[in-house]
């Protein structure tokens, strides 16, 4: 009965909505003209400068008893070189402890009053109830002025950063971002610098301290108060907690302006088995904050690819159905801005999607936009602007931008008036200036099968190949030694990890490894003995998954709920329960085929296909120089499963094992395991594998 009433009420409400619209159609042939632009009242803000050069901005808002504080250090862009990643670590490390407080004490003090405090490479941010403002600014000032850079926290943050880089190496979005940065700005520009495992590994605490000591100066900084506070209170707090901060001159290096390519260039990143391609068309633009073109660029981008009403979205999603969404951005920056048009498209239509991207880029630079498009874009921007004005933080950001970029005092208060005056002719001129359909970097991350189709989009008919970190890979054909067979490669591998005699002497092996999954530590223990296996996964001390295989039967337990494995799974466990399965390839009906050579992370590798008696296939990659296995791949129900092996180390009896294992395809994010220990021949009891 209730459902029927709701349905009837809904129909009635729909009728009330439809009737006025129909009635208006009877009396008005066209939509009403928009009224004049609203006058913007930015609210009350004040600004003053301390003797040490610290600029203080106060935005009063007494509607709620809350306050936020930010210290922004306007550090000039710098090249970090072989220690790229040091500045990020330094920013995170600030809140890890001071000369008077440990990290635990800081966290406890913040939690006790329900506040939040965080730090980054450009300063710190804090928020709390206004009655706790002095407690919070005391903590924030201590973090900024007296960091202790504790070694234990540094090691922890460094490990987390390395793990994130490892995971990002196989994430299509991150791969695209890395390569796009490199090709847009160049590796010698700060914006084109990509922290790598090698560069982060080189970072020491002294590098973080040096960055802090050189750049964290009051004469480069802004202190912004927003909320329930008066200028008088803010000045008192600023002088008390930051007045003794000593200023120092900091030189700024001049950076070269990156240039657009002379013709379109295609930059390709291989992602085997990808069902989608990540497409990004990008190049640098000379577009500074406060530029006379800023409002026109905002309207242009809204029309071109700013959202649901943008041309890219309508064409590539709604009309062609190539993607869930296609967007663009034209970003300003004090050094150098950038243009980007991007989408995730189905692999088989990657080239077709690029045709549409370039078509829209050429069209918007060759003809005026329609009246409807112009007005819709203006309405969208006006609405967004009005919503932002409801947030006190917006006023603070506007005030900070005005101070940082030396904008006119009425820049934001007259924004909508200037927006309303923009014409179609101005938008066309702006498009010609900022959109370059023939001078773009086209970055594609996808399956290798599509690579040849992309050459037609390059001015010289060639592709440039990259790894996920933005390193160019020269496509030199890997020449394999003559008469090499797959069996030879497998023998070299067995020899490289210890030799057949040593490997055959191993009767049991226990490996423990750990990984971090979205901030949660996960541990895996794998015990194998003569065809029996135990795999136990724990997280936060709790067993989340356990597999037991006694050689004949198997059980799988998830979160304490156990069930017996089906015959197909039992069969797969038989191979998993081999300590070194490669030793049995020759006797277990495996068919080996040498498929050629490739390059992985700059190293030449053999590509071996391993086919089981049941027809299942697996591809394995072996480093030509070392003989070690570096990757294995298989396809499971259309999903590419990949495992990368690295950091081989000696364990017992001259046996080598990989101490870094990265698995992708099993979960939405890659799992990067680090081996903690390996023990062999410890006399593991059969009871360990008993299936209840």
Secondary structure layout:
Elements: H1 2-27, E1 45-49, E2 55-60, E3 66-73, H2 86-93, H3 103-112, E4 116-120, E5 123-129, H4 133-145, H5 151-168, H6 172-185, H7 197-202, H8 205-215, E6 221-227, H9 231-242, E7 265-270, E8 276-285, H10 294-305, H11 311-319, E9 323-331, E10 337-346, H12 350-364, H13 371-388, H14 392-404, H15 415-420, H16 424-434, E11 441-446, H17 451-454, E12 463-466, E13 472-473, H18 486-496, H19 500-504, E14 508-517, E15 520-529, E16 532-539, E17 542-549, E18 554-558, E19 561-564, H20 567-576, E20 591-600, E21 603-611, E22 617-623, E23 629-636, E24 639-650, E25 656-664, E26 671-680
Helix pairs in contact: 2-8, 10-13, 10-16, 11-12
User: Tally of extended strands?
Assistant: 26
What composes the largest sheet? 13 strands, antiparallel
Uncertain spans: 1-32
Number of helical runs? 20
| CATH domain class name of the largest domain | Alpha Beta
Strand content: 25-35%
Roughly what is the average pLDDT, rounded to an integer? Answer: 88
The CATH topology of the largest domain is Cytochrome Bc1 Complex, Chain A, domain 1
Please, what is the CATH homologous superfamily of the largest domain?
A: Metalloenzyme, LuxS/M16 peptidase-like
Measured between the Cα atoms of the first and last residue, the distance is 52 Å
Structural class: alpha+beta
Number of domains: 3
Helix residue percentage: 25-40%
Radius of gyration, CA atoms, in whole angstroms: 30 Å
**Order of strands, widest sheet:** 19-18-17-16-15-14-26-25-24-23-22-21-20
* CATH architecture classification of the largest domain: 2-Layer Sandwich
User: Judging from the principal axes of the Cα atoms, what is the shape?
Assistant: globular
């Amino acid at each position: 009965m209730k459902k029927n009433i709701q349905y009837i009420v809904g129909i009635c409400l729909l009728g009330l909505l439809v009737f006025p619209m129909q009635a208006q159609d009877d009396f008005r042939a066209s939509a009403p003209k928009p009224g004049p632009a609203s006058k913007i009242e930015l609210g009350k803000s004040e600004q003053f400068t301390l003797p040490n050069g610290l600029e203080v901005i106060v935005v009063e808002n007494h509607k709620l008893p809350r306050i936020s504080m930010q210290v922004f250090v306007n550090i000039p862009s710098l090249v970090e070189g072989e220690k790229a990643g040091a500045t990020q670590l330094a920013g995170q490390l600030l809140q890890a402890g001071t000369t008077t407080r440990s990290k635990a004490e800081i966290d406890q003090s913040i939690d006790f009053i329900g506040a939040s405090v965080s730090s980054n490479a450009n300063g710190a941010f804090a928020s709390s109830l206004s009655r706790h403002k002095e407690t919070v600014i005391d903590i924030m000032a201590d973090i900024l002025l007296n960091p202790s850079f504790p070694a234990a926290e540094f090691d922890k943050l460094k490990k987390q950063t390395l793990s994130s880089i490892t995971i990002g190496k196989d994430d299509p979005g991150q791969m695209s971002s890395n390569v796009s940065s490199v090709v847009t700005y160049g590796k010698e520009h700060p914006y084109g610098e990509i922290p790598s495992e090698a560069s982060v590994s080189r970072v020491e605490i002294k590098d973080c301290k040096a960055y802090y000591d050189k750049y964290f100066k009051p004469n480069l900084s802004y202190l912004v108060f927003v909320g329930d506070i008066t200028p008088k209170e803010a000045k008192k707090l600023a002088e008390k907690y930051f007045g003794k901060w000593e200023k120092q001159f900091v030189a700024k290096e001049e950076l070269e302006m990156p240039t657009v390519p002379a013709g379109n260039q295609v930059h390709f990143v291989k992602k085997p088995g990808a069902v989608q391609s990540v497409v990004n068309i990008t190049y640098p633009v000379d577009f500074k904050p406060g530029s006379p073109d800023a409002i026109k660029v905002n309207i242009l981008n809204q029309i071109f690819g700013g959202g649901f009403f943008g041309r890219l979205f309508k064409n590539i999603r709604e009309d062609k159905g190539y993607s869930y969404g296609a967007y663009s951005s034209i970003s300003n920056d004090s050094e150098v801005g950038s243009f980007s048009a991007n989408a995730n498209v189905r692999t088989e239509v990657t080239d077709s999607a690029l045709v549409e991207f370039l078509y829209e880029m050429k069209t918007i630079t060759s003809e005026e936009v329609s009246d409807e498009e112009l007005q819709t874009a203006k309405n969208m921007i006006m609405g967004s602007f009005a919503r932002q004005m409801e947030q006190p933080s917006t006023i603070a950001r506007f005030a900070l931008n005005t101070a940082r970029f030396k904008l006119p005092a009425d820049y934001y208060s007259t924004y909508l008036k200037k927006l309303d005056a923009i014409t179609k002719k101005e938008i066309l001129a702006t498009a010609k200036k900022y959109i370059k359909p023939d001078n773009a970097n086209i970055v594609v991350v996808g399956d290798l099968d599509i690579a040849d189709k992309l050459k037609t989009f390059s001015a010289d008919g060639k592709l440039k190949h990259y790894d996920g970190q933005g390193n160019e890979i020269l496509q030199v054909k890997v020449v394999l030694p003559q008469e090499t067979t797959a069996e030879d490669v497998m023998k070299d591998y067995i020899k490289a990890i210890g030799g057949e005699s040593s490997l055959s002497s191993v009767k049991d092996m226990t490996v423990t490894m750990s990984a971090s999954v979205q901030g949660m530590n996960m541990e895996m223990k794998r015990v194998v003995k003569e065809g029996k296996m135990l795999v136990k996964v724990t997280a936060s001390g709790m067993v989340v998954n356990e597999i037991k295989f006694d050689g004949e039967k198997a059980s799988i337990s998830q979160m304490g709920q156990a069930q017996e494995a089906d015959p197909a799974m039992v069969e797969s466990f038989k191979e998993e329960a081999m300590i070194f399965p490669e030793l049995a390839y020759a006797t277990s009906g495996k068919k080996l085929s040498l498929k050629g050579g490739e390059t992985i992370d700059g190293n030449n590798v053999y590509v071996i296909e391993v086919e089981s008696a049941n027809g299942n296939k697996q591809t394995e990659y072996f480093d030509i120089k070392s003989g070690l296995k570096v990757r294995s791949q298989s396809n499971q129900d259309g999903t590419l499963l990949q495992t990368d092996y690295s950091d081989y180390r000696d364990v017992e009896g001259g046996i080598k094992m990989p101490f870094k294992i990265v698995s992708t395809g099993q979960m939405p994010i890659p799992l990067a395991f680090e081996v903690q220990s390996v023990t062999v021949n410890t006399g593991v009891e059969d009871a360990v594998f008993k299936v209840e």
